[in-house]
Amino acid sequence: MTEAPVLQIENLSAWFPLNKGMFKPATHWIKAVQDITFSVRKGETLGLVGESGCGKSTLSRTILGLREANTGRIVLNGHDMTNKSEAEQRPLRREAQMIFQDPNASLDPMRRVGQIIRAGLDIHGIGTRLERASRVADILTKVGLDPSMANRFPHEFSGGQRQRIGIARALIMEPKFIICDEPVSALDVSIQSQILNLLKDIQAERQLAYLFVSHNLAVVEHMVDRIAVMYMGRIVEIGQRNALLHTPLHPYTKALLSAVPASHPRKRKRHVTLEGDLPSLLNMPKGCALQSRCPMVTAKCKVELPTLVAAGREHKVACWNFEQTTSIEWEQSIGAHKKTTS
Amino acid sequence: MTDASETAIIAPEKIEAPQRSNFSKGLRRLLRHPSGQVGGVVILFLVLCTIGGQAILPYDPLDIDPIKRLRPPSAEHWFGTDELGRDLFSRILYGSRYTLMIGLVSTSIAAAGGIVLGLLAGGGGKLADMVIMRFVDVLLAFPYILLLLAVIAILGPSLWTAMIAVGVGGIPGYARLVRGEVLALREAEYVEAMRALGGGHLRILFGTILPNILSPLVIFASFTIPLTVLAAAALSFLGLGAQPPLPEWGSMLVDARTFLRTAWWVVAAPGVAIFISILGMNLFGNALRDVLDPKGQR
Amino acid sequence: MTALLEIKNLQTEFKTEDGIVRAVDDVTLSVRAGEVLGLVGESGSGKTVTALSILRLIEKPGAIVGGSIRFDGRDVLALAEKDLTELRGDRISMIFQQPKVCLNPVLTVGQQIAEVFLRHRSMEKKDALDQSVELLRSVGIPSPETKVSAYPHELSGGQAQRVMIAIALALTPRILIADEPTTALDVTIQAQIIELLRKLCETTDTALIIVTHDLGVIAEIADRVAVMYAGQIVEEASVEELFDTPQHPYTVGLMQSMPTLGDRRQRLNMIPGSVPRPFHMPVGCRFSPRCRARVEHGLEKCLTDPPALTGETRKLRCWLEGKE
Lengths: 342, 298, 324
What we know:
The structure holds three protein chains of three kinds.
Chain A: E1 7-18, E2 28-40, E3 45-49, H1 56-63, E4 71-76, E5 79-80, H2 86-93, E6 96-99, H3 113-124, H4 129-142, H5 159-171, E7 177-181, H6 189-206, E8 209-214, H7 217-223, E9 226-231, E10 234-240, H8 241-246, H9 251-259, E11 309-312, E12 315-317, H10 327-341
Parallel strand pairs in A: 3-8, 3-9, 6-7, 7-8
Antiparallel strand pairs in A: 1-2, 1-4, 4-5, 9-10, 10-12, 11-12
Helix pairs in contact in A: 3-4, 3-5, 4-5, 5-6
Chain B: H1 3-9, H2 22-32, H3 34-52, H4 88-123, H5 125-141, H6 144-155, H7 159-186, H8 189-196, H9 201-212, H10 214-237, H11 249-256, H12 264-292
Chain C: E1 5-16, E2 19-31, E3 36-40, H1 47-54, E4 62-71, E5 74-75, H2 81-87, E6 92-95, H3 99-102, H4 109-120, H5 125-138, H6 144-147, H7 157-169, E7 175-179, H8 187-204, E8 207-212, H9 215-221, E9 224-229, E10 232-238, H10 239-244, H11 249-257, H12 292-297, H13 301-304, E11 315-316
Parallel strand pairs in C: 3-8, 3-9, 6-7, 7-8
Antiparallel strand pairs in C: 1-2, 1-4, 4-5, 9-10, 10-11
């Protein structure tokens, strides 16, 4: 517990400029990521959950330095990445790697698998030619592929095998922290569990810290220790897995949970869904971002932005009304809301 | 059930026999494409003529024979003879090497210049992009023939000058194409993956992006090669390219045009040769596009 | 009750340079009015090709090479092109995974719905537009009077899929085929669309064929399920039977490998290997190289002889049947 976290980010924001000209400052900003604070400890997995456009991809890319942060601090393995030049950051970044969503798009089609996996070693000049080749062979075995496959091109592999190659490419750098960006959502169902198990095995063996980005709550529940829920660029709820899944406090988290399809036809239920439209990131309303869709919106929600407040041990939520809403009340209020809309 | 026992009962996934490489697949498709076949035959013929050199020619292309002036096509001289009694068939066959050379050299100059400018513009930051692309715009705004004349004015008229001039004239097109492709590929996940590994700008530009834009480049080149051949022939016709007695097809037309009414074959031979070779290259280019362009396939 | 749609021994093939790929091999299915049939399978299982074959939407180099499709007593494969257009959209309609791609970007939503009425029913333009508004209301589009004149780019993904459903249901078809209708949508939107489809089927007696890779969607909406693997149906059962007692080793594997909310295991069960490639089809049972049950029973037959789909209401394609 006292050990410094592998990744710590504080008040991180990433905005995209709009209408920016050569000599003209931007007139508007798309605030894709706003004021995010969390940390990931050694051997721990933090799940990042949210729907498309909530900012989870931008956040991942900002953490990895693929795009610049507008405000905030990123501390990786005790090294503060803020205000460091790209050259200074590069050696430090070796310890943070990423596994991409679409294994068809994330492997260079013109390169052989061995070259793809070796790329990190080549870039950082690690080892001799022979050493690199043997490390590639080792890592291929580790991820369940035959070392002789190093001479093949990516298109000769199935989706699951390609994702293993992507994992090998990240692992060869011996990182301490890996962002798994929807690592199985592009894979066939029968392959997903292979990859999920592989990721867990590797984590257990190397004490890796994961940031596991996904929209699939069932997968997240299986993989993670803690969960952060994002909505419109902000974290609206963060907490231990069980606490968050069993007693969700934010109306958005509740809606997400309720939307998960039944696991058995006899467990079919009426889904609690959020009505109304998402606000535009360009023109965010004052107050809470969920106000247009929230069934329990109050006057305060429309003027004041709720901040993350402690709601239990390691459980934080950004909602003005979370204390008033036990699950039962939520179901009732949603029922009433439904009746009035339908 | 543990991992070990799982692998024990189920044999690991078999490695399938190596698939045919993309290259040989593409080649097969190209050879099966009708216009690829026609174009391929034309280009192959040009190449064979060039390799064969003087050995395959019935006569010396430069040999003057005043007695045999302006003979019409016959069994002896298939395409007839010109005003100096030179065998036109031999001259046409021999001229194919200049056509190939112009196509390759000019296009190489255009492509090399365009690729460097395009890569720098697309991947080198906002300022580089603006400076390079405005320069390219200026080149494009320049009347093409004036651009060629300017280069020739500097270097003096010769076949090489013509090739360089045509090559320089082709740079803007390549630069624009490459820049566009770079901008599109920059967002590709595998490029992002290289950046996440810490890859530097140049390594990504030349090592990752360039190999992946080769196929649009090849397609583009297959369409510009015939254009460069035409442009060089036009320059030669104006007396600004290949100089007589070089049997370059364009310059052959210069001398021939005075005999248009009296000895049609002197004009027809180089004219038809240019026509067929350009047609062949274009057909081949079409086939190449069908094979390489993923959007053209299903 | 007789079947509305009956597919027997359907075979659909695609010609490629490397040879002929039989994407759908010997598929037999039937759908009754008002029924929701789930067609579940992974990529390459032939589920989408099966769905497209029903409407004869297979284009060259593909072709239906065998079997029969009967809709309402008529032989679909023998229909002339003219009757086929009447069948498509009017009697059987289809919605796809990417609703935005299917909508015409230069026409308003209303124009696109109205067009269906104008083409298939000789209706006044004004009436058609009025109908469109009603239709949009019925699929749960908020303020349909204004949305009717919106262009597709002004719609969110969920709204676009609702519009697609409205277009598909405009002529009250007997069967709606939905090919991965929720895959491209967010979780909360997916739940809404499933709810909508379920409600529409209950109220209109339209049969629904839902094609998906997601067992969760199946559990939510289907009455009966056919599981496809490598171009064949391997198991068919009522949805409750299938989830209670899955019988084919592939179905069992799929169910066990899927993480479900509220059931956290340390490790997920895995189906080893990957889906066979078209030119590397196993000789016997197509699932045999990945089949753990086969190894446990030590059955050699699976490797050499392809099993047939047997059974009356509950069907299974497996040599291990009854060997539990």
